[in-house]
């Protein structure tokens, strides 16, 4: 009975109180923007869960977001802030689109789709490793390295859409020519069961690796103290580059899902901000993989539900970002400091 009481108190401090504060703050924002919270909240729920089509849209966002968040948990375990995840999604989408342009009409759809997924994974993995190399060998902070490569990836997408891969007779922000329907991922509404399965498998895999393997234990050791890990003989470069590679692979696979299961072509906004949304999720759950799934579903539902606000209440759909940002900010302010010391010694960049 005592343990239950303390458990409820802990849950209240961790989630109950922040949720109440978020409801109050976002309701005030709604009032300031000319909306009635008693109308907005039901509209968000109705817009995300009101029909099978809307639920499928939520699940369509859940699948790639699970992949992105799973990869980010790996880099956060190593105390790496991989803001380059957006670029890794884009490069994965580029690789997938390039392969699909080659296999359409050549390979059977099942093999073409499988090859496209693998290509996206490899594209994101390569971009993640490049970020890691800039960090470790180039001595560039991973935040700046990742953000810089995001701009490069964005430029690459725009160049391909308006250059070599432009639609016949037209080049526009609408993207490349759509894939043949037979090369789309099988879907229930807007959601792909295959994509959802890949997202759940990625999350389960991350939980298993981080909590049940020596690799996960050593990765956390490298993140907690670089110098101590070096003294213990743990090859720091291998583990840090491995973390970037795994995160990039997950992000690249998310980019492949965006091409094969959502947009069915390459567009400039193919990432849909999933990388930065994944960062918010990981910050909110403090890199605890067990808490990822419900938060991902909540954030996805808010995103999808907000699309109804301009139609029904004449409010901006960007309100979803306000709710998510306030939620993360309130939870973080109520937690111990997120600062983690990283040993910066003379041989930080050696093996």
Description of the structure:
It is a single chain. The chain has 351 residues and is mostly helical. The chain has a single domain, classed as ABC transporter involved in vitamin B12 uptake, BtuC. 71% of the residues lie in helices and 0% in strands. It contains 14 helices and no strands. It has helices at 2-32, 37-49, 52-77, 85-103, 109-136, 142-162, 193-212, 214-224, 226-231, 236-263, 274-285, 292-306, 309-312, 319-333. Residues 337-351 have low confidence and may be disordered.
Share in β-strands = under 5%
CATH architecture designation: Orthogonal Bundle
Structural class: mainly alpha
Helix count equals 14
**Averaging pLDDT over every residue, what do you get?**
85
Number of strands: 0
- Which spans of ≥5 residues are poorly predicted at pLDDT below 50? 337-351
Percent helix among the residues?
over 70%
CATH class: Mainly Alpha
The CATH topology is what?
A: ABC transporter involved in vitamin B12 uptake, BtuC
How many domains? The number is 1
Cα radius of gyration in angstroms: 21 Å
Global geometry: globular
